Amino acid sequence: MLRVFVRTGPRARVAVVLQVVTTRTVLVGKGRQRHRVRQTVVLYRLVSQGVAGAQGRLLRVIQVAYPTARSVRATLTVTTLAGRQRMVHTATVTIDPRAATLVVVASPRSVAGGGMLTLRIRTTPHGQVSITLRVVGQKVTVTGTSRKRHRVVHPVMLYQLGVHGVADARGLLTVRLHVGFHPARLVRATLTVAAHGPSTTASVSVPVVVAPR
Description:
- The chain is 0% helix and 68% strand.
- By secondary structure, the protein is mainly β.
- It folds into 2 domains: 2-95, Immunoglobulin-like; 102-211, Immunoglobulin-like (Sandwich), CATH 2.60.40.
- The strands form 4 sheets. A 5-stranded mixed sheet has the order 8-14-13-10-11, with no helix packed on it.
- Strand 5 (72-82) and strand 6 form a beta hairpin.
């Protein structure tokens, strides 16, 4: 969202224009008369109009829907018309890529070995999603000799499952995971979901319990 605050004359008409433009070079003419011409191309244009209040103030909240994978510069032009007086103000605005968003609901939170785990994911439209389920145990080793002996705890990967998916046009994705780990007792697992946007990544970790069947 872009907030534009304008102070002008009472009841003045206001036009706010946001544009993303680029230039391209084309060849025109024939034979020896061919030459290059630089043209301006409008990639995005948004117009918002309003009328200032009795005190000459106006606030416009603009939703910028220009999709971009990198930061781009746009030109913001504000034109006011109060009676016969016309004023134009121009500023540069940077449009950044949309940050990845992520909401994950896992059910059930306790699943038996060999059972199914259902994930309902909400993220950016058509976002890439990676899902990893890990069960990590511990292994204790003894190092050193005589009085300098001590125990060292090492993490051990007991089980790992990874899948990938793509959200739909509404940013929704449902995934059913088959948990192939069969523990002899209750163990804790970590479910990690990562959503990848154009230039950002959001991740969520959810604890899950895997029970004996």
